[in-house]
Design brief:
single chain, mainly alpha, globular
Length: 261
């Protein structure tokens, strides 16, 4: 029977599929680290209090990239090129979600509106990341090879999500509520389509590596489309709600180090 647990176990057990999985994850985290680093450097003067938290966010993403590369090294594997269709962060940027890389490469201060866009984009994508890591921890939190790593990343993603909730609520109270609501909805509806496309691309590559029979690949593709239909029908709303988190100032301290392997 097909299940998320069995699929990830197959990917984990095969060096080639594991290599691709970790390479995709490491690349996305490194890209997130770069984006946050540039945003922290360009924060408008009226929001300079956010710069240390954005810097911490970027440092965490960089750390996650090192963790995935460390998992590869532990197994004696090198990172591989990420197939374009599986590059979640690149596809989001191409669809206009978040801040354009062209803007981030310029040495010009961002605006308050830009920071609203950044935090709204992060609220949506960090929800996806937190959901995925929660699932992996449930299935493999005690795994001797990857358990410690995914628990560390999961804890960080929970902090990132708490930070997004708190800062967006603060900005909403400061008068940015309408812009936040509009941007969150736009980001979420675009993200779920990109996540569907990336999931289909990743499973297609995994299917070729693991030599899945055609009926199995077709069943997986149907499941991905069904999940998208559920998210499009209303599941996306979990990505746009805001509530004050139990843990306040979640990114108020220095970044933690990567765990030893």
């Amino acid at each position: 029977m097909l299940s998320a647990r069995s699929l990830f176990q197959e990917i984990l057990d095969n060096d080639d599929s594991y290599q691709l999985f970790c390479s995709i994850a490491a690349s996305g985290e490194a890209q997130g680290g770069w984006e946050n680093g540039r945003i922290a450097a360009l924060v408008p003067d009226s929001m300079r209090d956010l710069a240390p938290k954005i810097t911490r966010h970027g440092a965490d993403e960089d750390k996650h990239g090192r963790i995935f590369n460390g998992l590869l090294k532990k197994r004696g594997l090198d990172p591989v090129d990420v197939p374009p269709g599986t590059d979640y962060t690149m596809l989001l940027e191409q669809r206009g979600i978040g801040l354009a890389h062209e803007k981030l490469r310029r040495d010009e201060r961002l605006t308050e509106k830009d920071i609203v866009v950044y935090l709204s984009h992060s609220r949506v994508t960090e929800q996806r990341a937190a959901d995925q890591m929660d699932m992996l921890v449930r299935f493999f939190g005690d795994h001797p090879e990857v358990g410690k790593a995914i628990k560390q990343i999961c804890a960080d993603e929970d902090n990132h999500l708490a930070y997004c909730h708190e800062e967006l609520l603060r900005l909403a109270y400061a008068g940015h509520g309408r812009a936040i609501h509009t941007t969150l909805r736009e980001c979420a509806l675009t993200e779920i389509a990109i996540y569907r496309d990336v999931s289909l691309a990743v499973m297609s590559h995994m299917g070729r590596i693991l030599k899945w029979p055609r009926p199995k690949s077709a069943a997986l593709a149907a499941g991905i489309h069904a999940m998208y239909a559920l998210e499009r029908a209303g599941g996306w709303r979990r990505m746009v709600s805001l509530k004050m988190p139990e843990r306040r100032d979640a990114l108020g301290g220095p970044a933690t180090t990567a765990p030893a392997f």
